[in-house]
Amino acid sequence: MDLHAITAHSALHAKPSGLVLQYGTAGFRTKAEHLDHVMYRMGLLAVLRSKQTKSTIGVMVTASHNPEEDNGVKLVDPLGEMLAPSWEEHATSLANAEEQDLPGVLMDIIVKAAVDLQQDAFVVIGRDTRLSSEKLSQSVIDGVTVLEGQFHDYGLVTTPQLHYMVYCRNTSGQYGEATVEGYYQKLSKAFMELTKQPFCSEEEYRSLKVDCANGIGALKLKEMEHYISQGLSVQLFNDGTKGKLNHLCGADFVKSHQKPPQGIEMKSNERCCSFDGDADRIVYYYLDVDGHFHLIDGDKIATLISRFLKELLLEIGESLNIGVVQTAYANGSSTRYLEEVMKVPVYCTKTGVKHLHHKAQEFDIGVYFEANGHGTVLFSKAAETKIRQLAKELEDEKRKAAAKTLENILDLFNQTAGDAISDMLVIEAILTLKDLTIQQWDALYTDLPNRQLKVKVADRQVISTTDAERQVVTPPGLQEAISDLVKKHKLSRAFVRPSGTEDIVRVYAEADSQENADSLARAVSLAVFELAGGVGEAP
Ligand code: 16G
Ligand code: MG
Asked: Can you name the residues that pair with 263 across neighbouring β-strands?
C-alpha cells in the first residue's frame, strides 16, 4: 500500500475541514459539492471491503429521491445487500478524517477488520443521471485505483441493477449474467413466461403509464421496452428530456403529497405508477370516474403479492412458510387485512431497507415492503431448490403449473433489494393472471386516514425509540403524552421518530377520519415541540 500516493491523491479530493457526515440509512447524502472527498474515500473503503470479503463490492453514486443538487454514495456488499453495520462505522470515520489523519484512520480500519492487503480487490461502480454523478464516480475510481483495486464502471444504471451486478459476479453468474443485457434477459424471460397464456392478451391490461421522476428509470425502461413489449406496453412520462429530477414527480412526491405527479396525462381508471430517482421504489395510482385520486402504496403492493403467493402455495400443497415484513408506517388496515383475512404472519421492523431485508431472510418466502414503495420478495436457498424441483418433477398438472408460476415469480423478483422495474413486472403479471383491474386491487381493503408531519427540534437525537420505533423512550413524558392523545380517537395510532435522512423529527398519526388523523398528528407534533426542544414556530 502506497501511503504517499494515497495522501497525494487525497489532496486532489480535499475534505472541507470541519465537515462531518454520517453513513446513514442509505449511505452518505448531502449537497453534491460537499461529496468529492467522500467519493474518493469510499473508493478506498470499497477496496478494503473487497479484500476482506474476497468478493466484488459495489459503489453506487446516487441521492435517490433527493433534489437534483444533492448526491450520495452507498456501498453494496457481496450478496447484493446493504453494507454491514460494522463497516458503516468504518465508512463514517474514514469520511470524516481530516486530511492529515487519513493514513492513520485507514490503517486503523485495516487492523480492526483484519484486511489482508495481499488479497486482490474488485469494485463495480454505477451512477444515476445527476449532472454531478459522472465526476463524482471518477473520484470513486481514483480511490479504487490508488489502492490498486481492479474495477468495472457500469456507468448509468439503476441502484437495483448495480446490486444485481454485484450478486451475479459473486455467484459466478449463477444468479444471472453481470451485464445490463443479462438483467433485461433474466427479468423479461420470467415475465414473458408468466404472461404468455393466450387469455392474458387483452389490450386494456397491457398498457401502463410510468412516471420516471426524470431519472435513470426512464433510460433503463427505454432500453428494456422491446424485451417485454409483447406482454406489456409502457408509456413513459417525466423521462428526463425536459423536467428536473424528482421535481414535482416521482414515487416520493406522489406518496407524500397523495396526488398525481406533474407531467403525466391521466384518464379515469388508467393504471399509472411512479418510480423514484434511482428506480428502487414504486407506487401505483389511478383516477376514478369522479376524478378522485387513489394511491396504491407499498402496503397494498405487499398485500397483492402475498395474496398471490399464498394462493400458489395452497395450490402446490407444500409447506413453505411465508412472512410479511413492514415498518411502523404501514397502514393499520393493511396489517389487519394481512393478519386477519389472509392469515399470514406480519412483522414490524425499524425504518430502512436493511432492517426489513434482514427480517425477511428468516422465512422460506419473505415479503417486505415499506409503505413508501421500497421492497421485494426474498426466497431462501432451500425454498428456491424446492420450488425448482417441484416445477420440474410434479406430475399433477395444476400443481406443476402453480410451481412453475412460482418459479417464474422467483426469477422475476430482484432478490438483492427493492427494484421498481422488477416489482412493476411482478405486479403487472399478477394483475394479468388474476384478471384484476386496478380498482379491484385497490378495493382489497380501505386505508385508514393518516397524516405525516415534520417537527424541527434543536437536537433530534434526544428522541430515542423502541419496539420498532413504535414507542418513545426519551425524552421522559413524551410517550405518555402520545398515548393519552391516541386514546382520544377511534382506530387511532401515532408514533414519532428522528429522521435518518433529514434534520427533523417525523410524526405519523392515523385515525378513523381524516379530520381526526390531522388533529392527532397536530397534537402529537405539539407534544414533540414542547417536550423534545422544538425550535422556530410551534406547530
Ligand atoms: C432511506 C431508506 C428508506 C427509508 C427512508 C426513511 C434505504 C435504501 N432507503 O431513503 O428505506 O424509508 O430512508 O427516511 O434504506 P427517514 O429516516 O428520513 O424517514
Ligand atoms: Mg431510491
From this structure: none
